[in-house]
Amino acid sequence: MERSEEIGKENGDSEQKQSVTDGSICGYESLDRLLSANLQPQVCQEVSRLLLGLSCGQPLQSIAIPESAKSLSSEHDFDLQAFSFCADKELLRESRMVRVGLIQNSIVLPTTAPFLDQKRAIFQKLKPIIDTAGALGVNILCLQEAWMMPFAFCTREKRWCEFAEPVDGESTQFLQEFARKYNMVVISPILERDVNHGETIWNTAIIIGNHGNIIGKHRKNHIPRVGDFNESTYYMEGNTGHPVFETAYGKIAVNICYGRHHPLNWLAFGLNGAEIVFNPSATVGELSEPMWPIEARNAAIANSYFVGSINRVGTETFPNPFTSGDGKPQHSDFGHFYGSSHFSAPDASCTPSLSRYKDGLLLSDMDLNLCRQLKDKWGFRMTARYELYADLLARYLKPDFEPQVISDPLLHKKSS
Amino acid sequence: MERSEEIGKENGDSEQKQSVTDGSICGYESLDRLLSANLQPQVCQEVSRLLLGLSCGQPLQSIAIPESAKSLSSEHDFDLQAFSFCADKELLRESRMVRVGLIQNSIVLPTTAPFLDQKRAIFQKLKPIIDTAGALGVNILCLQEAWMMPFAFCTREKRWCEFAEPVDGESTQFLQEFARKYNMVVISPILERDVNHGETIWNTAIIIGNHGNIIGKHRKNHIPRVGDFNESTYYMEGNTGHPVFETAYGKIAVNICYGRHHPLNWLAFGLNGAEIVFNPSATVGELSEPMWPIEARNAAIANSYFVGSINRVGTETFPNPFTSGDGKPQHSDFGHFYGSSHFSAPDASCTPSLSRYKDGLLLSDMDLNLCRQLKDKWGFRMTARYELYADLLARYLKPDFEPQVISDPLLHKKSS
Q: Where do the record's region annotations for Disordered lie (chains A, B) (predicted)?
């Protein structure tokens, strides 16, 4: 078989269901759907309580999706789900309901296609999904990490840097139109080329305001060196701190991909006042799937904010085979990006996940007042004793740091 | 009905199965058992992969339990489960296998019984469970938070302080015998009375070495003020830092109960070199059950160490009714302690949980080399950029801290 055919086959339609890695079950869409298809309703409800939590003491409510939106999702073959988190009514503050959207998608053309064609094909694929979000009244929409290109960093080939764009480049302009049209804040994670700093490459999220203006950017703070995530070959640790963007619809921040493994990164966005933190990602099954539902949700609990987690879908195959530092033979793909985008709330509840295989749009309504309500309830900020940790981290940074270890004085005594 | 009868009924045998809060399903023992009883094996295996992860690419293995131990668990009616985490063989280090045990239990006598009787009845109940752990070759054993008393802090009555003991008190002495007999490290979380500091009360874990010696103690760092967890009425934030205890079987630490909500607390034990962190707890269903499987596991992933999570079981009813600050009528119990003790590993895998209703002993074999293997694989320490956070926390502590907020300059412009 020609390599290009192979690529065409694998990068094509995301609708084709695939076997899971171990071959035991074919193409189930998500854990939640697998459970609801296989459990009695009563059992399923209790399992959901344990796995997804409760919102105001009740299972999370679905939002009815209008027929027009259902038609679009069916026509363009993307998963469409919508939920509503519950919060208490307050007596001194109006509720601050916002509708938030996450989009996950596979690439469209083979990675051998001309780069501009690849990018524009993604634009074309996203258009009806973003239109659906806009038509459904989404206030804040976030796309996946490096959404305008294949996630080619596994290859270590520098030619993929050509996809990098300035903050106000073509991909931003594409999204600015939707922001204006739908009065919607859009978060656009791209590969950034920083011409003013000698063509430096960054992994950057651009925050587009609801008038189409660029509010600012955040550059990925923590860069992986694990598996085929050879991103440290391409770009360095971000230099934008932990900004929180005050938008028309609340205070938001972006923790890009691998930053979700760092509780301190999540903490910093919280200390700066974030109410929703987005985690646009690109991650593959064998490496991280069991971690995926844990880390974002822990961050939402610990920091009393909402989290929107996005992962791309599909398998991307590249022209030249590469090895993975695991002694296995060379191969041409990065593994299966398992989608499964979802929201987590500060009250420890979370939504079911989007498909593991299909493009998707996940909506959720949330009252941002819930963040403060949870701070008042649990008091994590007030009981945090930050002074202990400021001191510890300052000491830890020194090369001669001595950990606090109490050794058993009988350690080398023989057992009686 | 007399109140004492009521108490007797509720505090009695833990074996009696109870309805879950919403009444939909009666007395299932654990999420894992509920799923395996209701799913086809093939589906269950895939659900387990998503929920519990893989260990060396395989489902976590059970350890065969000898008939003698099974008989003890049956005779004394406690849940007994055993698993083995997998690690790679290294070429330059011997593997460091340890067998670790967690015990969860309900109290025995009504809380109206004489205090000494209540305590000694718990001793008697624990004896065969600890003997089973010893006979099975457990190297490190941890009991639940304040294991030698009812969790009476919901009442705000100061008379329960009578249960507090010095570090070398009766409860410690009780456990020192087992430590010597079985050459076993024992972690004993008690209510501590610190006579040398004016009868100060602490929530303390005592680390007993495998020769029966007291290696040291750790006092709970973070004290809750949520629901009926009125612990701040009884004791203050611990003054022992984040010690790691170097024992004959590895470097261990203790994050007591509410400290699990604080990622910085977990982090500090990791920075000090812990390989296993125990989280002895007492927590109830409606408040925290959906958080329970998330936080400890996130800590194991983020800090590349094992976590042993323990929660007590049963419902404890107190002589005098109390209110809960939620506008609801006075009541006499704290809610259902849902057990569900389990282990989490640094590779994101975790064991199934012990029963939600019964006493239990959970064993796990683990090669402590796995901690460093995961540090080498994922590099979370090296990519953590602690300097950013030392600086942020130092600034945050100042009363005039200014969060890093970038406001949309068009924030107050009317939408077009």
A: 1-20
In this complex, is the C-beta atom of B276 within 8 Å of any C-beta atom belonging to chain A? no
B217 as an active site residue: the answer is no
In a domain, A9, yes or no: no
Q: Which residue of B has its CA nearest to A209?
A: B408
Give residue B34's domain range.
Answer: 24-53
- Phi, psi for A398 (deg, rounded to 5): -75, 140
Provide the pLDDT for residue B171: 98
Task: State the Cα–Cα distance between residues B166 and B324, nearest whole angstrom.
Answer: 31
For residue A400, is it within any domain?
no
Q: Are B190 and B163 part of one and the same domain?
A: yes
Contact A163, A149 (CB under 8 A): yes
Domain count, chain A: 1
The tokens of A259 are what? 């930053």
- Between residues 219 and 258 of chain B, which touch chain A (CB distance below 8 Å)? 221-226, 237, 241-248, 251, 258
> Residue B366: which of B31, B48, B56, B79 has the closest Cα?
B56
Rounded CA separation B157/B320 (Å): 9
**Domain membership flag for residue A364:** yes
Query: Residue A154, SS3?
Result: helix
pLDDT tens-digit series, residues B98-157: 999 999 999 999 999 999 999 999 999 999 999 999 999 999 999 999 999 999 999 999
Average of per-residue pLDDT across B227-242: 96
Percent of chain A as helix, strand, coil, to the nearest 5: 35, 25, 40
Distances (CA, A) of B352 to A367, A388, B53, B380, B393: 35, 34, 11, 26, 37
Q: Are residues B35 and B122 in the same domain?
A: no
Residues 23-52 of A with CB under 8 A from B: 24-25, 28, 31, 34-35, 38-40, 42-43, 45-47, 49-52
The predicted-structure confidence for B30-81, as pLDDT tens digits, reads as follows 999 999 999 999 999 999 999 999 999 999 999 999 999 999 999 999 999 9
| A77: enclosing H helix or E strand | none
* B183 and B272 fall within a common domain: yes
Place of tokens 């999702």: A73
Q: Is A111 left (phi over 0), alpha (psi -120 to 50) or beta?
A: alpha
The encoded tokens of residue A212 equal 């189409």
The answer to whether residues B45 and B78 belong to one domain is no
> DSSP for B129-152?
HHHHHHHTT-SEEEPPTTTTS--G
Does residue B16 have a pLDDT over 90? no
